[in-house]
Structure formats: structure tokens, C-alpha cells
Amino acid sequence: MDNEIVQPKAFPNNLLQKDWTKRKLSEQCGQGFVDKVHDMLVRDDDVWIVTLPKCGTTWIQELLWLVLYDFDFEAARSEHLEVRTPFLEFEYMIHNDLDHALDQIEALKSPRLIKSHMPLALLPQQLWIKKPKLIYVYRNPKDYIVSRYYHSRSLGFCKDTNLQEFALECIEEESTVPSEDFEHVTEFYELRKEPWIFYTSFERMKLNLRQVIEDICKFLNKEINEEQMQKMLHHLSFEEMKKNPKVNHRWEFEQMRAKFKSEYENNNFVRRGKAGGYKDELSADIIAKLDDMIQRNLDYYGLSLNELLLLDGEVAL
After folding, report:
1. What's the pLDDT band for 255 if we cut at 50, 70, 90?
2. DSSP 24
3. 48 - beta bridge partners?
4. Residue 240 lies in a domain
5. 135 by DSSP, 3-state: which?
6. How far apart, in whole angstroms, are the C-alpha atoms of residue 54 and residue 139?
7. What does pLDDT average to over the chain?
8. Would 183 be classed as within a structural domain?
9. Bridge partners of 163?
10. Lowest mean pLDDT among 69-78, 230-239, 256-265, 271-280
């Protein structure tokens, strides 16, 4: 499905005072789905995960599910992650059935852990009013573009496109300043000090996963002992994540590959898990073009990439 320009029924003016009429919003699921999500019933004890695609979403999902469900590692290893913590947009993308698009989420017992890639203005209106816990994760755009490429090929897309060409297409798509991706992240970055929002980055998780786990436990009012922490650090290591079939989205991949019926590469969903891995895969020319695109967006907001990634100035990007 191609992305469609959509218009939500209302904007989160109670959160951000901005000229929303200038905010270009697109969603591959279309206007009908946007309207259904806008009217969705949000529970007070919901926990939401919002990210751009391939920004550490799976990593933070597994972390959050374990914290919410009292570090039940046996249960986590027994059921697919995307069943335990569903992707808001997935059912409609697969079945195109508006009437049942949210059935999986509505059937979940509380507390629900819900994932979405939708921007702030397209999320449920009750989210802005009830303000349940929400976790946002960002990642260096150069890394998430590389990760998106391999993810797309795993679904049978981009089969005639190499990585450098894919990156150039991303640069062209993000040529408008501010780009959709940067509007997505900066809206949540501006809200990062709200008590109901926890804002972090893939890079912070790589630097100090223990600290992020401790901070999230405090955010969710959960306690963790040293034995549980050691199990978390082991379970959430990329060596373990990579070989764990329950977090590699096989349940989703089977349905998407069946739907699109195209040849695909069998790339592991958890592929490298490396910060700065783009340096090994993108040409110097492409990196320079990406740096230019990123910097034009950062200049628009008066921010640095280190600020968006919550890193100090000495960390190399």
C-alpha cells in the first residue's frame, strides 16, 4: 500500500501548541483506519511504544513486556512478541478489514503493551487526554535506513534495488524540510519531560542497557533485583535476541510474505544490532548526502543529532 495523505479529526493542541495546518501527515493504512484509531478506547493502564520503523522497537518491546509482566522469561520464550504486544497497524495492513482492525488489541488483558509507528497526531485522541505511559525510541537515521533496507528485502520488496540506491531514495523522500521522520521524532522529543512519556534512543540502550532498564522500572513503578537484572541483560543481549525465534517476527513475516507473494531474502529481523553500523555498508558519497539531509532538518529545529539521541558531544555518530 502506498502512503496516503490523511487528516485526523483533531490535533493534540493540549500537548503542543503549533500550527498543525502545516503538518503534512501520511499513513499507508489510509483515512478510514486513521479515523478508527482516533476514536479508539485507551485504557488508563495501557503502555504504548512509539517509534519510527527499525529504531530499536523490538528490543524495547521485549524489555517492556518483561518489566510489565514481572520478568516472566518462560512466558516470553513461549509466545511470539508480536502476539504479546501487538502492532497497532498490522491487522489492517494484512487484512484490510476496518471492522476487525483492532480486534487483537481490544482482546488483550490489561495492562496492554501496544506498539505503533504512527506520528503523534494520528494516535488515539484518548492518548492525549488520559496520558497513559508512553515510551518513544529514536535511532541514528543512517543506521535505521540501512536496517529498513534489509527488512524490506526480507518481505520481498526492493529486490531490484541495492542499498546505496535505497538510501538515495530515502534522501529524495526526505528532501522536504522538515521531513516527516524529523517531525515524528521532534514532537516526542519536545514532550520528553512530560511525566507520562519516557524518551530514549537505541544508542543509549547500547551504551548502558542496565541504566535504561533501571530508569524504565522507575517510570513504570516496578522493582527489579540484581538477579532479575542479570537475567534481563542476558536475555536482551543481541547474541540472545538474534537466536530467539519469539522476537524475530516470524509470526508477522509469515503473514506478510503470504500476502505479498514475492521472492524474499531470509534476513534475520534482529540482524546486527550495532550503533554506527552504517559506516561498514554505505559509501562515503551516500553518507555525505545523508549527513546533509539530516543537518538541514536539525538546523530547522535548532537541534543536534546528539541531542535527539540523548548523547553527549563526545560520542561519535
Report:
1. low
2. -
3. 114, 134
4. yes
5. strand
6. 8
7. 90
8. yes
9. none
10. 256-265
Residue 265 has pLDDT above 70, yes or no: no
Catalytic (active-site) positions: 117
- What angle is formed at CA 43 by the lines to CA 38 and CA 46, rounded to 5 degrees? 100
Q: How far is CA 81 from CA 206, 229, 245, in A?
A: 21, 20, 9
Task: Supply the pLDDT for residue 269.
Answer: 46
pLDDT exceeds 70 at position 156: no
Q: Where in the sequence is the domain holding 266, given as residue range(s)? A: 8-140+176-245+259-271
Instruction: Find, among 257, 12, 238, 11, the residue nearest to 131 by Cα.
Output: 12
Q: What is the domain count for the chain?
A: 1
Name residue, grid cell 488489541: 105
Higher-confidence residue: 2 or 235? 235
Q: Which three cell numbers stand for residue 58?
A: 523490538
Burial class (CB in 10 A: 0-12, 13-18, 19+), 263: exposed
Residue 165 inside a domain? The answer is no
Domain membership flag for residue 216: yes
Host H or E run for residue 147: helix 141-154
Q: Which residues lie closer than 8 Å to 117 by C-beta, 6 or more apart?
A: 50, 51, 52, 53, 57, 89
| Residue 166 · residue 218 · CB < 8 Å | no
| Residue with more model confidence, 184 or 267 | 184
